[in-house]
Amino acid sequence: MSTPVSPRESASVHHLPNARPEVHPDNPGVPLDLEPVRAMRANLSAIQRRAATLPTRRTVKKQWQAAWLVKALQCIDLTTLAGDDTEGRVRRLCAKARAPLRADIAEALGLADRRITVGAVCVYHRFVETACQALEGSGIPVAAVSTGFPAGLSPFETRLAEIEASVAAGAGEIDIVITREHVLNGNWQALYDEVKAFKQACGPAHMKAILATGDLKTLRNVGRASMVAMQAGTDFIKTSTGKEGVNATLPVALVMVRAIRAYREATGNVVGFKPAGGISTAKDAMAFQFLMKEELGNDWLQPSLFRFGASSLLADIERQLEYYVTGRYASFDHHAMA
User: Fold this and answer.
1) For position 87, what pLDDT does the model report?
2) Which of 9-13, 40-44, 238-242 has the lowest mean pLDDT?
């Protein structure tokens, strides 16, 4: 049972916009153009230096940090993708998604009258209907991982059928995985055709393309795969399944968001970004937020264009916000997602 917290002087973050815009990117795609794909370059040392400065050059404290953390909370795709998932676990996850910030903390922050939810709940197809029922009336979309997640090596027709089944079950977002072999072999036509077919199968659902960047070997491959996936019509590009040896990192994110910027400048189409895998602390989340603000601007700090794929991240954000309003750190077992 949690202990109520008392508001700290100047704890209010009323200036924080209630950012849950209903408009999501709908990238129509463009014909495959290999010129910008082949032009993608990645200066490893420069990228690493840039990424290393992000958490140190920009810092925010006190009520401003609280505001950034509430914003990060709203951008979480609250996820459970374990082999021992149950309907009961998914329902509990959905209950937390509806009220991710404990009521006493929200009141102490001056946010008791705000509707604050996470960005989405992400589950396997098996639990899409359960999640949709648990989230009914909340406006929170259900995202389903699909296309043979995490390896993406199921037969092609099976992967298409999996997308269609999840959309029919009520999923509003589909997280697909690409065939990494196409990237490693430089078979950009095959990658383009695959992602385009997946997008068509999604119908009205928004699609996030998981590049599994830890499997792509080089940052140049990451940039090229990002560009091809966007040309094929994906609405988001996502770093990882969370199952690779290396998941979301700032250097990889930097390459991907610069590809998003290049694609927008070339086509006028807007694409979102989702880092996923290994992002478990508030400090990590804020580093990715700083990157989005500096590279793409404030529009990409909203849940319509930016998501974290995470499970334990929510517990640390809630813990940091509790520290802000009380001056004391609670143990992780005081928070539901710990």
Assistant:
1) 98
2) 9-13
298 secondary structure, DSSP code: G
pLDDT, residue 8, reads 43
d(Cα 205, Cα 167) in Å, to the nearest integer?
A: 7
Which of 175, 215, 235, 284 is flagged as catalytic? 175
Structure tokens belonging to residue 291:
């990157």
Report residue 158 as tokens.
Answer: 């099976």
Q: Name the catalytic one among 235, 274, 284, 316.
A: 274
Other Cβ atoms closer than 10 A to 17: 13
* Nearest-10 Cα torsion for 105, 107, 108, 111: 100
Where residue 110 falls among pLDDT bands split at 50, 70, 90? very high
Active site residue 238: yes
3-state secondary structure at position 174? strand
- Angle of helix 313-326 versus helix 282-295 axis, rounded to 10: 100
pLDDT of residue 335: 65
Give 1-11 pLDDT, tens digit per residue.
Answer: 444 444 444 34
* Cα–Cα distance measured from residue 97 to residue 118, given in angstroms and rounded to the nearest whole number: 5
